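Honest question from a wet-lab person: if I give you the sequences of every part of a complex, can you actually get the arrangement of the whole thing, not just the pieces? Trying it with mine:
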Amino acid sequence: MITRISQAEVYSPAALGVQQLLVAGNRIAGLAQQLDIQGAEVFELEASGCLLVPGFVDSLAHIIGGGGEGGFTTRTSEMQFADAARAGVTTLVGVLGTDAVTRTLTNLLAKASAFNELGVTCYCYTGSYQIPARTLMADVMEDLVLIDKFIGVGEVAIADHRSSQPTADELKKLASQARVGGMLAGKAGIVSVHVGSAAAGLSLLHEVAQSSDIPLTQFYPTHINRNQHLLQMGFTYVAAGGYIDFTTSTTAQDLAQGEIKCADALLQAWQQGVNINNISFSSDANASLPEFDSNNNFIGLGEGRIASLYEEVADAIRLGVPTEIALQVVTQNPARILKLPKKGKIAVGADADLVLLDKTTLTIKAVMAQGRWLYSDGSLPGIQARFGAV
Ligand code: ZN
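Yes, you can. This is the full assembly:
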């Protein structure tokens, strides 16, 4: 099936103006002001009043649930596929979390396979919150080399009372395994790092980079919008060449405790001239978001939402961050950091992962992944009839 989308303003995420886009099978086959096709059955989608943007890439989602730090009844539920599709997320990375005892890598891979069967592209990180890392094979390197869906390791926790209190040497060993495993398999081999609220923040990662041959770019620290102190540390970390990731699932309690909404954090970064190429958003979807008092006693629980990923991008645009800049943090930046060259962009040859947005309200109108329509709000004719068709 060939689909031609016309009249939409295309953001690749760079602003390309009104273009026609051709989808053939699961790939983008054409992008130009006028595309002529003859002798083929074409589904014509007239999308005036829409922005056409790349499908979103979510580098950290607890697809099999997470938690629960308040006992077994606070374990969160698995992610529903429809929630990811509706949120415009067409590529995601599933992770374990605080609990690598009752949540397992085998279960994670099974859930990722289910998501892939349903139409999105789902990878996983091997390893766990704690060191020594949980693995399926003998070690992290073998997991990365031998199991396709593993593209990195983590999230491994630092600067957090729930972490295994890893030393710089432990992190170096983990990162070297991920680095070589990634090299051998042609993958990112990235080390996803959960950064907690302890004042040390990112200092352990600087220490690792300064006392070894492992570059800062081996690490992908997340939750950097946790408080203003960590955010500023993050900007310094980017200036040193590193990547940082902000978490979009922010609760009212988080805000009361000083967390910076992603939209605001991105606005700060942009206004301060921080290199946006090294910044991404992730949802932390289906994580338990435990709330602790000042003595680290558990007092309540929220749950991460995948819809928050794009909601924060839309909010950043509303705050005045240019559209192409705001889109970067959920498209080309995470795709580049995760070494996924066919993801996070609109270009000929890239995967046909697309989101149509209402230009005025910025709401999601339709979502395509791998050439299949996965979601429509009903306002663009003809899409529902094509759900599932490639
Ligand atoms: Zn985390």
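Two things worth pointing out. The mean pLDDT is 95. Residues 155, 194, 223 surround zinc ion (CB under 6 Å).
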